[in-house]
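Protein modeling request. Please complete all fields; requests missing the sequence field cannot be processed.
Requester role: graduate student
Desired output: 3D structure, token encoding
Chains: 1
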Amino acid sequence: VQLVESGGGSVQPGGSLTLSCAASGFTFSNYAMGWFRQAPGKEREFVAAVNWGGHYTYYSDSAKGRFAISKDIAKNTMSLQMNSLKPEDTAVYYCGLDLSDNNGVIRVGAYDYGMTHWGKGTLVTVSS
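Delivered output (128 residues):
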């Protein structure tokens, strides 16, 4: 299994970025995936998740209405479109994969939403 994030960078408040997670080593269309982030000095937190087929999504309160998660099954890529970025969105963003045998549903309430594999992260900095 390999998860490789890209698309991070520096942006001004109010700006937009799109993160991508290129996945390989497993059947991409069978499993739920998600985005998490970790700000300096803070614990990793959930941002958004998408189910096996990409047709059901779930967001943290801070991401709702500003971020959009999606899966491109043909390209084995998961994305996170981030709009109206704020300084408090500054963090390393991680791609997560739930490779457990649970029919590819989002495990709301589970520790780390059940994610079993992680990418190495991409840094997003929101600053003027």
